[in-house]
What does this fold into?
Amino acid sequence: MFTSPHGNEPLGTILYSVEALILAMNVRGDIPLADIEQFLERATIPVRVACRTPRDELWMLSLWFVYRDGRLHCATAKSAAVVRYLEKDEHVAFEVSTNDPPYRGVRGNGTATITDDPDKTQLRELLTRYLGSTETPLGQRLLSEERVEVSIVIDPTRVYGWDFTERMRGRSEQSSA
It folds into this structure.
């Protein structure tokens, strides 16, 4: 029997869980889930996350992420305000979108789970993904022993993908002339 590299759970059970999670997502818009997932897997654009503060005010921030197993995996310092906010209310909205034409992206909502990451495994993966290495000045500062890190995992419940490439084709040609 195959088992997960992250525990003793049978691999078939994990694959079924991921498949069930992805099937449970409410996909809106004209972009199929496979294309949404491909965009999220390839994008090295920070995810914009919206949540509520304990005073019920809206709060938005950007986080690096990696899309894996139908979820957005992020990392931040345990002392970050967003950790307190998500501990009080796990509901989030999110968006990953390009900043330059033709605009395309994914937005949605879901819930966020926070777990301690004492080995900074998630942060190391994100540093490599976004900076190419953990051996950068920023990487070394974020990986310092004094910094306590957590993982934030966003489980999307609704996603909406868009791609304005076709309708912006004329604009892209005009701006390059």
Strands lie at 26-28, 47-52, 58-63, 66-68, 71-77, 91-97, 104-116, 149-163.
